[in-house]
Write a structure and sequence with these properties.
transmembrane, two-stranded antiparallel sheet, diguanylate cyclase activity, transmembrane helix, Alpha-Beta Plaits, single chain, MASE8, Nucleotide_cyclase, five-stranded mixed sheet
């Protein structure tokens, strides 16, 4: 529970980016709705003071323009920090413009406390793309600005007694509601992150799933073609793996697979990607690696597996071997299947040649 609250109050960058991406459209729509509402509330100005309301039309329009600009920043994916900074500046400007509108109305400050409530409520609707702490600060700023304006003489006839009695408890309640929204958002984020992790991670070895490795290969192919540079693929298969299952059982086979994956991870770079393609067969993507270097990596993996005895059960220590097929991206490779198929053929050449060796696709 404590960790959950900490993540809400001090979220990591991944969650902040998630909020910006997933709530940006909602915030854009609510910002546009707010702009229309701010303009439409001029009718209330007219009810309070028909003569003075004419002097507030321009202020209402300027407020709407400021809010619409915020919606445009969200719509065109302007960086989050710049958008948030504009939201704070725009909120201050709109609140001051609203106070000036009240100054131009007879008894405006006494009749428009609902307007201050409206601005206090806005972060619940508009600022859903920012973390809770930012939204709470935004709300606190909106609540504290009218008393500051009254103290400096900008808000004429400001009701110092009525305002804190009304806006103080309401603002506190709104911050609690904002926190509840954030809990829901963070729970959804964690659920989606976990589902994605399950979808792309092999439960036994921790390597990527077949779908993950094919999707990653497609992205690496597109990157290699766009920016240049080679891309190589290794296909690895544990030799005589069926004997392990038949002799010591499937649990020993699982330990053997995990042991081989650990050896491979230790022998490749952080930028390389390993995925379980099926059974005891694995694919390793080597970005920015040409054919000769890929062959050296494959040989290093073969030696690492063959030179590391694995404990599969009490008093059962075996030394495994593996066969590997190597290929490199070619201009004629239009799909991932073509690239992986060539690596698979090279793998079977290695197995047919006697196993425990590396074969390079022609």
């Amino acid at each position: 529970m404590g960790h959950h609250i900490k993540q809400i109050v001090w979220p990591d960058r991944a969650y902040v980016d998630y909020k910006f991406d997933h709530h940006r459209l909602f915030s854009t729509i609510m910002t546009i709705a707010t702009s229309l509402t701010v303009s439409g509330l001029w009718g209330w100005d007219h009810v309070i003071d028909p003569a003075g309301a004419e002097r507030t039309i321009g202020l209402r329009l300027v407020m709407s323009v400021i809010i619409v600009l915020h919606a445009l920043l969200l719509h065109f994916r302007v960086p989050r920090r710049l958008t948030t900074a504009y939201a704070f500046i725009g909120a201050i400007a709109c609140q001051l413009l609203f106070i000036e509108a009240l100054n131009r109305l007879d008894h405006g400050m006494q009749a428009q406390f609902s307007g201050f409530l409206f601005f206090t409520f806005l972060p619940l609707l508009v600022m859903q793309y920012v973390p809770f702490t930012t939204g709470a600060l935004f709300m606190a700023l909106i609540i504290s600005l009218p008393p500051i304006a009254g103290a400096t003489g900008f808000a004429q006839a400001f009701e110092y007694v009525k305002y804190p009695l009304l806006l103080g408890p309401v603002g506190g309640m709104f911050i609690c509601v904002l926190f509840a929204f954030e809990q829901i958002n963070y729970t959804n984020y964690e659920s989606q992150r976990l589902l994605k992790l399950i979808a792309i991670t092999d439960s036994l070895t921790g390597a990527g799933t077949r779908r993950y490795i094919t999707d990653t290969a497609a992205r690496e192919m597109a990157r290699a073609r766009r920016y240049g540079g080679p891309l190589s693929v290794l296909m690895l298969d544990i030799d005589h793996f069926k004997r392990i299952n038949d002799t010591w059982g499937h649990q020993a086979g699982d330990l053997a697979i995990c042991g081989v994956v650990d050896l491979c991870r230790a022998a490749i770079r952080d930028t390389d990607v390993i995925g379980r393609f099926g059974g005891e067969e694995f694919v390793i993507l080597l970005p920015q690696t040409d054919r000769q270097e890929a062959e050296r990596v494959a040989e290093r993996l073969r030696v690492a597996v063959a030179g590391a005895p694995l404990t599969l059960a009490p008093n059962v220590v075996v030394t495994l071997t593996c066969s590997l097929g190597v290929t490199t991206l070619m201009p004629s490779d239009h799909t991932v299947d073509v690239l992986l198929s060539r690596a698979d053929k090279a793998l079977y050449e290695a197995k047919n040649a006697g196993r425990n060796r590396v074969a390079v696709a022609a």
